[in-house]
What we know:
Largest sheet: 10 strands, antiparallel
Number of helices: 8
Low-confidence stretches: 1-67
Strand content: 25-35%
Shape: globular
Order of helices and strands: HEEEEHEHHHEEEEEHHHEEEE
Structural class: alpha+beta
Amino acid sequence: MMITVRQLCRLSQKKSLCCTVRLYDPGNVVRHHHGNKGRNQLVLNANGTNFHYFKKAACRQYNKDVGTKADLVKAIGYRCEWSHNYTAHDAILYALGVGVSTTQSDYLKFLFEKDENFCVLPSYGFIPAQKEVLLLTLEGRLPGLANLDPAKVLHGEQYMEVFRPMPRAATLRNECVVVDVIDKRSGALFLFDVHTYDNKDTLITYNQFSIFIVGAGGFAGKKTSNHEKPTMKPPARPAEYSVSQATSVDQAALYRLSGDYNPLHFNPTVAARVGFSKPILHGLCTLAYGIRHVLQQYANNDVAKFKAVKVRFSKPVYPGQTIKTNMWRDGNRVHFQCEVTETKDVVISGAYVDFHHID
């Protein structure tokens, strides 16, 4: 028999059934039609010939089992490896992408490979670790993320611990595992742990990427995770130091050349789909500004003193805006918060940098 959605809705009204009729093709919701509220839900199979009544609780389970959201938790334990090669040229390009400038007093150590003090910014440790994380999410390779719109992928939080200063050039091996998937109702939060080793299997960095998938929540998953690295509120006192630095209108265009090609940061059409007036700056680029400001203020740009960083990305920065970093010292930990000078919006919160020691 053939039956239309309208006929089904009339039937649901007569039987005081659920407000929603869903079409599955197969396993994916492709259209909704709303009728009366009720205790049951009417589900139409993709071929249009069969339908079943479910109690409300059973309906929720059906939706989880059939819809792709149910597959999200299957990503936990997913593992992969990849290598990353870089040279001094790549490190310099990255430094320019995160605001190092020849107008700064000690720019040679980050921009001139022949300088006797040449070194790589600690935040470059994000770059080798992010490659496969980006592909797993942006290309929908993980369970439950098939046909994912890249515009739905947002960077929520970041943690990194540096065990040895980044080499000036290296071939690095990265081991990644999805340690958890958290149900945030409005979306799903994926926790990726990435350990990065040199060619002698020496641990260089450990990163935890917290990647938020808009609209993927509501799968009755866990609300918290013991794996998640916590953020920290800054002290309830005025900041000890503040540093402001303007970004370039081309900052995102330059930064993306270090490997983050998410179109959200470059394509106006993609940015508009998420509700932004124009492409936004990469969160890790904004973070690198904050790290540089803290490193300069408290360690005189001595990269060997840097130990770890944790932040939450609160709001976006648009290329061309000014980033102001407020800082508070607490022993060998420096709390910091970044805001946009033009709007006063806090863009990085709950953040801190740990140093091995501060003079």
